[in-house]
Specification:
By secondary structure, this protein is mostly beta strands. It contains no helices and 10 strands. Strands 2-10-9-4-5-6 form a 6-stranded mixed β-sheet, with no helix packed on it. It has a 4-stranded antiparallel β-sheet with strand order 1-3-8-7, with no helix packed on it. A hairpin with a 6-residue loop joins strand 4 and strand 5.
Length: about 120
């Protein structure tokens, strides 16, 4: 059974940092490309970052590039998203997922950045 469970969200002040975790079961994190996505109020879900299965090469959307860092721990079978210099535009529910499981999404974790 495939499961991806997000955690680590919360309420933070702008300019601060937060790290999200995606604990994976049912497959290893180095076998599939895994991505972080977010959905803000009134907006569609968008891709934020991803990490390749082959060599762990990271990719970032323009809005977070230079501020966010994606990484994985193979031993813990977990993918992380370190978010720095957060701003109110980062407020959203954050999800992790992998192909071919995009027809199923978990509860995500809420990140709220206050001014």
């Amino acid at each position: 059974q495939v499961q991806l469970v997000e955690s680590g969200g919360g309420l933070v002040q702008l300019g601060t940092s937060l790290t999200l975790s995606c604990e994976v079961s049912g497959f290893t994190v180095d076998s599939l490309a895994i991505g972080w996505f977010r959905q803000a109020p009134g907006k569609e879900r968008e891709g934020v970052s991803s990490i390749s299965s082959a060599d762990g090469t990271p990719y970032y959307s323009d809005s977070v590039k230079g501020r966010f860092t994606i990484s994985r721990d193979n031993a813990k079978n977990t993918v992380y998203l370190q978010m720095n210099n957060l701003n109110p535009e980062d407020t959203a529910v954050y999800y992790c997922n992998a192909y071919p499981y995009f027809d199923s999404w978990g509860q995500g974790t809420q990140v709220t950045v206050s001014t």
